[in-house]
Sequence to fold (434 residues):
Amino acid sequence: MSSEYTKMIVGIDDTDSRDGMCTTYLCALLRDELSSYAKTVSDPILVRLNPTIPYKTRGNASVALFLECDEPEKVMDHVIRKVASMACMENENTNPGIVFITDDQFEKVRKTLSDFFRHAVKEVITIDEAKELVSGLGLKFKTFKNGRGLIGALSACGAMLSQDWDHTYEYIAYRKLEVCGTPRFVDGDSLFEADRQTYPDTWDTVDLKNEMVVCVPHAGDPVLYGIRGKDAYSVEKAVSFIRSEPVERVCIYRTNQGTDMHLISASTISDIQEMHSYILEGQVCCEPKTIRGGHTIFSLKDSAGDTIDCAAFEPTKNFRELIRKLIPGDRIVVYGSVTERTVNIEKIKIIGLSPKYEVRNPLCPSCGKRMKSAGSDQGYRCRKCGTSSMVTERSEVKREIGIGFYEVPPCARRHLAKQLLRFEKDELPVFAGR
Fold:
């Protein structure tokens, strides 16, 4: 590469569908294809945006590459042609967007796009807002169909420009395209071994309690598996234990997965909006109930007396057993996303337990035997002594849960949800483990 080079950021989003393709695959492919006339400056970026957006394709992820190149126009043409040819254009929900930023623009747009990135993780952004922003900043871009992918492309560029956000890493291995849509082969025993050898430096490879593999997807996309961890070394070490079908290519991404970046602290329930994610403190105000479908739901009341439903949905498996042990009066902090006025719980922190009592028929003061009911509203009578009493016996019983943090199992974890193992120890009065 000559000394006359241009630094460039390329942001891409919304090229996949629920049936196939993957925006991260396109990023990995472009990184490799562009290597003949461009070089990668830093780790590719993979950012997850607001998880409640209803028109997302799968995981609401966008990507960005940071390149040095001699011919930026050639890079732009290559990227546009590749997205046009490989994106799932036939799917009505696939609306790609691409953004190009050159180094002479970096400082001008850095603050604006960094803020936009953080906004897109927490808030709901319209296509018109994104188009107005990219035009106002004078950036080169390309959209297809309604151009919704412009939101994610701008966000990924903002993440690449800011770099000062909490991050983790993901190693993604991709299948050969000709086998996409057929069953994957990744040896399950090798994944459990990879977890044993590298946890807690890697996580969510498997779910031990539910005896499930977590890191292998099931859709028809090119991803074979993804290993998540604290740094590139750790995820590469885990991969060294994995046995699988042939891999076409791999890519390690720096990502905001596992950071809780999507969460907003809410003072009261009245502050809560649909399609946002919150940290909310309150008091359990009704017994949890398990409804049809296996979902467990209870109501939470804040200091103002307002209430909102909180749910541990069926995919959270054994986490629901914990939720069923809550009783009215327990003080908790819930973490999760809100849709249809219900908090989808990602984890909870129990900060205060209400006493639980067991009520039984009283003991006879004469013979010590348990009295029997004398009839409706007639109290109790000892059949042996004839002694009567109107007072029941009430005794406190030990709760089956303790104060501390609890999280959903890996099989139900959302991309952005921060694992308890990533919290500082002083934030975890009780470490729930896995």
